[in-house]
Amino acid sequence: MWKMSKVPQCQGKFLDVNQALEVARFDIQYCDWRARQDVLTIMHLHEKVVEVLNPLAREYKSIGTLKKELAGLQEELAQAHTQVHISEARVETALDKLAYMEELVNDRLLPDRITAEADLPSPSPSMSSTSLEAVNKKLPRKSLNVSGPVQPYHPRLKNFWYPLAFSADLKDDTMIPIGCFEEPWVVFRGKDGKPGCVQNTCAHRACPLHLGSVNEGRIQCPYHGWEYSTDGKCEKMPSTRLVNVKIKSLPCFEKDGLIWIWPGNDPLAATLPSLQPPLGFCVHAEIVIELPVEHGLLLDNLLDLAHAPFTHTSTFAKGWAVPSLVKFLTPASGLQGYWDPYPIDMEFQPPCMVLSTIGISKPGKLEGQNAQQCSTHLHQLHVCLPSSRQKTRLLYRMSLDFAPMLKHVPFMRYLWRHFTEQVHYLF
User: Fold this and answer.
1) pTM of the predicted model, to two decimals?
2) Which runs of consecutive H residues, i.e. helices, occur in 120-160?
3) How many domains does the chain have?
4) Is residue 125's pLDDT more than 60?
5) Alpha-carbon span 20 to 25, nearest angstrom
């Protein structure tokens, strides 16, 4: 299979930024064309299979003829699926190449900025404020420091059910290390297949348990092999006598395709909120991102759409006009409502969940529209788990009420993740 070189070159010379971006653009265009061809080929072959298996057609064909036709179609389908995997790898390579070029650009901008700042003349009485403004405009914009300082957690904030992972990510033989309110935890499935959450520290020599493995529903420490069940009890101590040892565990539950924990000390809430997408929607992507930002600030951002036409102009808000007034109307309660003039319904569910339904039938022309008037919609779930006061574990679920076939295109998950990261790293 053809493989792109990591560093773009042309006739023995390194490409400049514009040339490299042009090469990347052609790569992505080719990947898009190739993907469309793959999908069309598979659809055509499936139609052939349906035609061969048609009861009317079987009456006029022998068993041998049907077997021969099906064998030929099976071989063609295998070749088509192989081509899909090749396209998937090509897309992944193109995305890696883009990420690498982004690093190169950032590395180039940093020394340029330092040089520009060093070359700046020192302010003097003869230099006007207009001249200073002109010089400052030439410098790259400084990035915002969103890591702190932040206020301490409210004591009652822990007394909620918190989603921390998607069920599909937690296999029987895997574990997921997470941080929650400055404490390290690890989630895994027990012998009964139910999830459990225990302290991510072995009681023996304080080794992080997530560096070990899951064996028969128990998590095994990689240092001396101590094994713990989902309730935190140590059930195996190789090379020594078994004694009564238990590490801290949290109540853990599974619902709506999510793993939930209760990190507080108050009695458990009887019910968990429902985070299922609305009827008629199909889940297309479930993505987890660790963001270096306090979770309250991230929630504020998700609930504030006035920044979108300024910050997200290269992604979902491309073409959005800047209205004279942005309003959030709450006909039902203070925790849910809809935006005017944007076609977006939004709901906040304590302690850290935001659900939104976006009408996308007319991208770039939003004024005068609302979500109900749009024919197609995107539903989003954002879960902002407070890992620490300067870090948030974001769970993002995207669902659509159209184009269900996209879910079965193998490489789409890479594109969804790429777009998701583009949006949320800007926030």
Assistant:
1) 0.64
2) 129-138
3) 3
4) no
5) 9
Residue type, 228: Y
User: Residue 2 gets which letter from DSSP?
Assistant: -
- Of all residues in the chain, the percent with pLDDT exceeding 90 is 37
CATH number at residue 411: 3.90.380.10
Helices of type H across 120-223: 129-138
Q: Residue type at 346?
A: M
CA 314/CA 309 separation, integer angstroms: 9
Taking only the tens place, the pLDDT of each residue in 190-207 is 999 999 999 999 999 999
Q: What is the CB neighbour count within 10 angstroms for residue 304?
A: 12
Tell me the pLDDT band of 52, cut-offs 50, 70 and 90. low
Query: Nearest Cα to 211, choosing from 194, 199, 223?
Result: 223
At residue 350, the 3 state secondary structure works out as: coil
Token digits for 151?
């206020």
Looking at the structure, tell me whether residues 171 and 70 fall in a common domain.
no
Q: In terms of residues, how long is the chain?
A: 427
Residue 57 lies in a domain: yes
Nearest Cα neighbor of 226 from 239, 250, 192, 170 is: 239
Domain residue limits at 173: 162-261
Share of the chain above pLDDT 70, in %: 73
Whichever domain contains 206, its CATH number is 2.102.10.10
Q: Position of tokens 């022309």?
A: 365
- Residue (of 273, 427, 289) closest to 352 by Cα position: 273
Q: Which residues are CB-contacts of 275 (< 8 A; sequence separation ≥ 6)?
A: 163, 256, 258, 349, 353, 355, 381, 383, 397
